[in-house]
Each structure stands twice: as structure tokens, then as C-alpha cells.
Amino acid sequence: MTFLAQAIEILITLYIWMIIIRAVLSWVSPYSRIPIANYLMRLTDPFLWKIRQLLPLPRMPVDLSPVIAILVLMLIRYLVVALLT
Fold first, then answer.
1. Nearest-angstrom CA–CA distance, 35 and 54
2. What is the pTM of this model?
3. What's the CA gap between 60 and 75, in Å, rounded?
4. Fewest Cβ atoms closer than 10 Å to its Cβ: which of 4, 42, 58, 85?
5. Burial class of 40 by CB neighbour count within 10 A (0 to 12, 13 to 18, 19+)
């Protein structure tokens, strides 16, 4: 695997974990005063907001955009690694 493919794979994996941690924090403490939660929200909200805009999901008590975002990122990671190796 090339260096570029490895770097992209690591970055996408880190972003996936950031989305997972953000989702868990939103369940535990939705209006958290934890400093890392604010950073995670700033880093993940643009991508999650685009997904919320693109998908006509009805207003639900559970936000499915993190799940869809993770699936999209996993697909991108797979395609990038497959094309660059």
C-alpha cells in the first residue's frame, strides 16, 4: 500500500471515530460542557450538515446522519485504498 493510501485511510478512520464519539456524547450529555465535545462538533458538523440537507429524512427523535456519514466514509476509504494500491 502506498504512503498516500495509508495516510488517507488513517485520516478517514480518525474522522469516523470522531463521528462515533460525537454521537455517543450527544446521547450521554446533549448539551455538554466538555471541551472536547465542542471541538468534535466543530469538526464533524459541516459533513453531517451536508448529509442532513441531502437526505429527506423526516423529523425523528434519533439523528441518523452519523450512521449514513460513517457508511459514506467507509465506502470512500475502501475506494481510495483500492484505487491507490
1. 29
2. 0.85
3. 25
4. 58
5. buried
What is the C-alpha separation between 48 and 53, in angstroms, rounded?
A: 9
Rounded to an integer, what distance in angstroms lies between the CA atom of residue 32 and that of residue 83?
A: 40
Task: Determine the angle formed by the axes of helices 35-54 and 65-84, rounding to 10 degrees.
Answer: 80
| Phi, psi angles (nearest 5°) of residue 14 | -60, -40
| Gap between the Cα atoms of 75 and 85, Å rounded | 16
SS3 category, 34: coil
Query: CB 37: neighbour CB atoms within 10 A?
Result: 18
> What pLDDT digit, counting tens, does each position of 58-69 carry?
777 778 889 999
| Residue 46 pLDDT exceeds 90 | yes
